[in-house]
Design a protein that fits this description.
The complex is a heterodimer of chains A (269) and B (573).
Chain A: H1 2-21, H2 35-66, H3 84-104, H4 106-114, E1 122-129, E2 132-137, H5 158-162, E3 175-177, E4 180-183, E5 188-194, E6 199-203, E7 208-212, E8 218-222, E9 228-234, E10 246-252, H6 254-268
Parallel strand pairs in A: 1-5, 4-10
Antiparallel strand pairs in A: 1-2, 2-3, 5-8, 6-7, 6-9, 9-10
Chain B: H1 12-17, H2 22-52, E1 57-58, E2 62-63, H3 66-85, H4 87-101, H5 110-129, H6 160-189, H7 202-233, E3 244-245, E4 248-249, H8 257-291, H9 298-311, H10 327-355, H11 364-381, H12 383-386, H13 389-395, H14 399-429, H15 435-461, H16 475-478, H17 481-511
Antiparallel strand pairs in B: 1-2, 3-4
Helix pairs in contact in B: 2-3, 2-4, 2-5, 2-17, 3-4, 4-6, 4-7, 4-14, 5-6, 6-7, 7-8, 7-9, 8-10, 8-11, 8-14, 9-10, 10-11, 11-14, 11-15, 14-15, 15-17
Classes of the chains: A alpha+beta (269), B mainly alpha (573).
Chain lengths: 269, 573
């Protein structure tokens, strides 16, 4: 039975680790400025935690086999209540490992979340509602027009769904889109809002996730570094259509972005 | 303080239904958890079928719609967390064995004990009733995030079903609070002569600290539940700001959705330890018994349980890194969360230290204890990923989280429950369980648990999101469909193999081999008394304790174990 445990536990360890080392299923290729740092820390954590995992499982399987009851004979269990020095050693080592690992990642967290977006970032207001995403651009005046809950009409889509107050002069040049178009290599400031329940804006390729909470306007930022279409999806349970609440972040060149925005402005006139 | 009648009550109702005997109440909790666990498992079976064959028609539910799937996961989570993981280890085995292991005739407050069980039972009935009302069970997940859980218009199931859900949880909290008071008082005041705190088995330490966690955590959840009920029915706005659903104003304003999360997770994270601490205590016990060795580092184990309990209240914010909570707060919660990994690691080292140079007997309780250690390690090492906000940006709400908490809080705890059942069954029912069936059950469940939950890590790392009734809509999730298929097949086999346990349990109650008073040659007080124990536990005798709980293979002793009630021993080297 001890041998059985050794074989099964070791086998599970080998198979489980194989798919990690082979990266059979892995994070998508990163397309934002933060991705490299996050992925690097991911790998560091994997190596350290993987080593702990493998060491503990190997020891468990080995001990189960080595110290099995061999029946009648001189075998005697070792009478010991433990070892204080060992307790101190592994306590200190674990503290260093866990706290050190955490502190190593704090500079990335600080860049992502302590620091606000820099002036000149492209502002996009992202509004979530059951079960759609809307993206609003302030237009040439750089100001978002007022929105009013009582004006909301989801059946209108676009500005109507957001409840945009057309009497507000700042709203005249606001552009509302169903796809998030952003320029490459520019910092994007996301202003996240929700009309109804909590949703979460998740773009795996950007290593970006943030809940959209009704009653709050949450400011976040990321910098795409690769053009292309990237899927986004809702990552917080928001109701029966949760699994369908997805969309596209379209990263284009600066010039294409300006053209696209201008074209949308022109459509409004 | 309790006065315990020596004479057992006569009459079926006082003896088996409204019993004041902690042993009967323990069994009532155990059977409630048994019904709950098979209910919860049946719901997960339906979920696994739906994920892979979405158009399949299923018993009781017909074709599963997206909202039905969400109801299933909500009820699966709620039933498992409250009525299985909290009910069986603490209410069940704790009730039965805490008084006996400390040498008491009963719990401190037998009437309160009876009330706490029947309150819990009522909670379960109210919860299950949610399936049968108009609109069905709620779809807001076991975490019930507001405003989704607060607005009847937010989805099907959010009407009466959601009211029943939150009422059930509130009722459960009341029962759990009564139980917690009883456990704490009993541990502090009812110990036999010589049973100092540092001579208590680690199981008792675990139940004691768990009770303290319960006392502090369930009160907060109860309050949160009442506030949510008020938001839903009385027009208050504790958790709901000004929101519209489908463009219609709901009449609420000024509330904070994050407040619910804080209150919920202030309960929710300690709850993880409420589920796992008793399993830790028990597996420590079993590793010692079946390795025929003292537990390695008894004091370190006690301090680790305390440290886990204490730190457990300072880490709840790690569930909220992406919620819009201050990133500075996230940093603090992250450090505390990494710190709680330290006592968990200490326990793992000590378990390995206990096996080291032992003389291991591979009987079914021990197999599950070793399986517990393996699963605790694999479930534990994914913790430091999620505890770091930088990595949680990506992993939050993916299947990586599902893998993590199912392994550490679900499967590891369930292995503790299985180990406890195989270990204490002889004492509870006077018969042995069938060892061949038990071993078959172990191997299938152990390999099955890995086959189900290991691939969920991969699914999550590739971005697969939880609480998606279908993965077909999002391209990167759709690409992962083969993993879901594998998991479902593994789940079918593992779920089927639980029938072996069920058959063994009921067959052994009637036909199992008669058990001796101390079949495992263990040292703690429950093995000094008759099998099953008499009504007052020790047949009119009050035990006197002379030894620690883990005196195995003491050099110079006549046997390889010294009972706690034996004459005091000192090792002769």
């Amino acid at each position: 039975m001890g041998l059985g445990l050794l074989v099964v536990i070791w086998l599970i360890t080998v198979v489980g680790s194989y798919f990690i080392i082979a990266k059979t299923w892995w994070l998508p290729v990163g397309a934002s400025a933060a991705a490299a740092g996050i992925d690097h820390h991911f790998t560091t954590t994997y190596i350290l935690m993987g080593a702990v995992f493998i060491a503990a499982q190997l020891a468990l399987g080995w001990f189960a086999w080595k110290y099995r009851d061999r029946g009648a004979g001189p075998q005697q269990a070792y009478y010991s209540h433990g070892n204080t020095t060992l307790e101190i050693v592994w306590t200190v080592l674990t503290i260093i490992l866990f706290i050190g690992l955490n502190l190593a990642s704090e500079s990335i967290w600080a860049t992502e979340r302590f620091d606000a977006a820099k002036p000149g970032a492209v502002q996009v207001e992202v509004t979530a509602m059951q079960f759609a995403w809307y993206f609003r651009y302030a237009g040439p005046d750089g100001k978002f027009g007022a929105t009013k809950p009582e004006l909301e009409d989801a059946s209108l889509g676009g500005a109507g769904a957001l409840g945009l107050d057309t009497t507000d002069p700042a709203s005249k040049d606001d552009v509302v889109a169903g796809v998030m178009v952003v320029p490459v290599n520019r910092e994007i400031e996301v202003i996240l809002r929700s009309h109804d329940v909590i949703h979460s804006f998740f773009v795996p390729a950007m290593r970006f996730k943030q809940d959209a909470v009704p009653g709050l306007a949450i400011h976040m930022h990321f910098t795409p570094i690769q053009t292309g279409d990237y899927e986004l999806a809702c990552a917080e349970l928001c109701g029966l259509g949760h699994y369908k609440m997805h969309g596209i972040v379209k990263v284009v060149s600066d010039q294409e972005f300006s053209q696209w925005l201008a074209a949308r402005e022109a459509e409004k006139q | 303080m309790a006065t315990h009648d020596i004479a057992a009550p006569q009459g079926f109702i006082r003896k088996y239904i409204f019993s004041l005997d902690h042993k009967v109440i323990g069994l009532q909790y155990f059977f409630l958890a048994l019904v709950a666990v098979f209910t919860g498992m049946f719901l997960s079976l339906l979920m696994r079928i739906h994920l892979v064959w979405p158009n399949a028609s299923l018993p009781f539910f017909g074709e599963i719609k997206p909202e039905t799937y969400l109801s299933l996961l909500t009820m699966h989570g709620t039933i498992m967390v409250f009525f299985v993981l909290t009910t069986a280890p603490q209410g069940g085995f704790g009730n039965y064995f805490l008084p006996i292991q400390i040498g008491a005739p009963d719990m401190a407050f037998p009437v309160l004990n009876m009330l706490s069980f029947w309150t819990t039972f009522l909670g379960f009935i109210v919860l299950v009733a949610a399936f049968f009302v108009t609109g069905g069970a709620p779809l807001h997940g076991w975490t019930g995030y507001a405003p989704l859980s607060a607005l009847p218009s937010a989805g099907p199931g959010e009407g009466l079903g959601a009211d029943l859900w939150i009422t059930s949880i509130a009722i459960f909290c009341i029962g759990a609070l009564m139980g917690a008071l009883n456990f704490i008082t009993t541990t502090l005041d009812m110990r036999a002569k010589g049973m100092t705190l540092m001579r208590m088995p680690l199981t008792c330490w675990a139940w004691f600290i768990t009770a303290i966690l319960g006392l502090l955590a369930f009160g907060v959840l109860l309050s949160a539940g009442i506030l949510l009920l008020m938001d839903r029915n009385l027009g208050t706005s504790f958790f709901v700001p000004l929101v519209t659903v489908n463009g219609v104003l709901t009449g609420h304003k000024g509330g904070s959705p994050l407040l619910w999360q804080h209150l919920f997770w202030f309960f929710g994270h300690p709850e993880v330890y409420i589920a796992i601490l008793p399993a830790m205590g028990l597996c420590s016990q079993l590793l010692s018994v079946f390795s025929r060795k003292p537990i390695f580092g008894y004091r370190a184990m006690v301090y680790a349980i305390m440290a886990i309990g204490f730190l457990g209240f300072m880490v709840w914010g790690h569930h909220m890194f992406m919620s819009g909570m201050s990133p500075y707060t996230a940093f603090a919660f992250s450090i505390m969360t990494m710190a709680i990994g330290v006592p968990s690691a200490i326990k793992t080292f000590n378990w390995l230290g206990t096996l080291w140079r032992g003389k291991i007997r591979f009987l079914s309780p021990m197999l599950f204890a070793i399986g517990f250690v393996s699963l605790f390690v694999v479930g534990g090492i994914s913790g430091p990923f999620l505890a770091q906000p930088v990595l949680d940006i990506y992993l939050h709400e993916t299947y990586f989280v599902i893998a993590h908490f199912h392994l550490i809080m679900g499967v590891a705890s369930i292995f503790g429950i299985f180990a406890a059942t195989y270990y204490w069954f002889p004492k509870m029912f006077g018969r042995m369980m069938n060892e061949t069936l038990a071993k078959a059950h172990f191997w299938l469940t152990f390999v099955g648990a890995y086959a189900i939950f290991m691939p969920m890590h991969y699914y999550g790392m590739a971005g697969g999101l939880r609480r998606y009734s279908q993965g077909t809509e999002v391209e990167w999730i759709n690409n992962l469909a083969p993993i879901q298929k594998f998991i479902s097949i593994a789940a079918f086999v593992t779920i089927a193999s639980q029938l072996i346990f069920l058959v063994n349990l009921f067959w052994s109650m009637k036909k199992g081999e008669k058990a001796a008073d101390n079949p495992w040659e263990a040292t703690t007080l429950e093995w000094t008394t008759a099998t099953p124990p008499p009504h007052d536990n020790f047949g009119g005798v009050t035990p006197v304790v002379h030894n620690g709980p883990y005196e195995y293979s003491v050099p110079g002793a006549p046997r390889d174990f010294v009972m706690q009630t034996d004459a005091p021993v000192t090792a002769k080297h």
